[in-house]
UniProtKB/TrEMBL annotation:
Pfam families reported for this sequence: Cupredoxin_1 (PF13473)
Keyword Signal: yes
First and last residue of the signal peptide: 1-21
Keyword Signal part of the UniProt annotation: yes
InterPro entries, A to Z: Cupredoxin (IPR008972), EfeO_Cupredoxin (IPR028096)
Protein name, as recorded: EfeO-type cupredoxin-like domain-containing protein
């Protein structure tokens, strides 16, 4: 496969993933002053969704949920997202691994 063909395949793959992530229900979370806000996210059960995370603090953060097997490290000022698979009704904890004493919350699937 030529370099051009390989690059086209990679570009189409990336565009497809971006379009897939854009179509999901999206919930926003902001990190500032050592906290992730909101501390509780209510989401629909049984449906895939996306959490957009923006780090407005002056230090790095790490959004992490052991129950959901998700983690995302963001530098100061960075934005990113995680896609969460469909959840059963219930409560799922998350925290900022760099600020565990002040930054904890839960995702409630109903």
């Amino acid at each position: 496969m030529s370099h051009l063909s390989l690059m086209l395949v990679m570009l189409c793959s990336l565009l497809g993933q971006a379009a897939w992530a854009e179509a999901l229900p999206t919930f926003k979370m902001i990190a500032r002053n050592g906290k992730l806000e909101p501390s509780t996210l209510s989401v629909p059960a049984g449906q895939r969704f996306k959490i957009e995370i923006e780090n407005q603090s002056n230090s790095a953060i790490e959004f992490e949920s052991l129950q959901l097997r998700q983690e995302k490290v963001l530098a100061p000022g960075a934005k990113s997202f995680v896609v969460i698979h469909p959840l059963k009704p219930g409560s799922y904890k998350f925290f900022d691994e760099y600020h565990p004493a002040t930054s904890q919350g839960q995702i409630v699937a109903k």
